Amino acid sequence: MVDENPQRARTAITELSNILRSSMQAEKAETVSLERELSIVKDYLALEQMRFEERLKIEMEIDEDTLDQQVPPMMLQTLVENAIKHGISKQLKGGTVKVVADFKDDHLELLVQNTGQLANIRNGDGFGIKSTEDRLNLMYQGKAFFAIKNLDNNTVESKVTMPVVI
C-alpha cells in the first residue's frame, strides 16, 4: 500500500496507531465513554474498509444521548472485530456490519449485527463469549447481559445490555 497509495497508507497507520494507543490505555481504565469506544470502533472499521473495500458495508445508528454512558473498554470493538472475523470475512460477497446504541427500559443497549450465520460456537472457540459474559457479570454484578443469536438466515446479532449510569 505504501508504494501504490502513500496517502492511504498514512491514513491506515494513523488509524492503527489510534487503536493500539487506545488498547494500551484501556488496560488502565475500568470504563470509558461510549463516544471514546466508538472512535476506536470507527478507526478499526476504517482499516477493515481498506481491506475489504466494497465487500464491507458499515451502518451506524447511535443515539447521541448514549455517548456519555460509560462502557467497558474495548468491548464494543471486540464485538465488531468478531463480526468481521466470523461473519463478513467468510462471505464471498462480503456484507454489512451495523452498530446500534440506544436506551431500552432504563438500560443502555449496544447491538452489533453482521451478515452471516452463527455456528455452534458454544462447543468450540466460544472463549470470547464466556469472557464477555464474565466481564459484564464482574463489573455489573449480574445487572448486565450479553447475548448472541441468529436474527434470520443471514444476520447475526450480538447484544450487550447494561444499566444506565446517571
What can you see in these coordinates?
- Helix content is 40%, strand content 28%.
- By secondary structure, the protein is α+β, with helices and mostly antiparallel strands.
- The protein has one domain: Heat Shock Protein 90, CATH 3.30.565.
- The strands form 2 sheets. Strands 2-4-5-7-6 form a 5-stranded mixed β-sheet.
- Strand 4 and strand 5 form a beta hairpin.
- Helix 1 packs antiparallel against helix 2.
- The protein is globular, with a radius of gyration of 16 Å.
- The mean pLDDT is 86.
Could you outline the blueprint of secondary structure elements for this entry?
Layout (H helix, E strand, L loop, with lengths): L5 H21 L5 E2 H19 L3 E7 L7 E2 L3 H12 L8 E10 L2 E9 L11 H14 L4 E8 L2 E9 L3
Parallel strand pairs: 2-4
Antiparallel strand pairs: 1-3, 4-5, 5-7, 6-7
Helix pairs in contact: 1-2, 2-3
Report the radius of gyration as a whole number of Å.
Answer: 16 Å
Instruction: Give the CATH topology.
Output: Heat Shock Protein 90
Mean pLDDT score:
86
Report the end-to-end length measured between terminal Cα atoms. Answer: 45 Å
For the sheet with most strands, the description reads:
5 strands, mixed
The count of strands amounts to 7
The percentage helix is 25-40%
The gross shape turns out to be globular
Q: Beta-strand percentage?
A: 25-35%
User: Low-confidence stretches at least 5 residues in length (pLDDT < 50)?
Assistant: none
CATH superfamily placement: Histidine kinase-like ATPase, C-terminal domain
Query: What is the second-level CATH architecture?
Result: 2-Layer Sandwich
What structural class is derived from the secondary structure elements?
A: alpha+beta
- Can you count the helices? 4
Q: What is the number of independent domains?
A: 1
Secondary-structure element series: HEHEEHEEHEE
The CATH class turns out to be Alpha Beta
Strand order of the largest sheet: 2-4-5-7-6
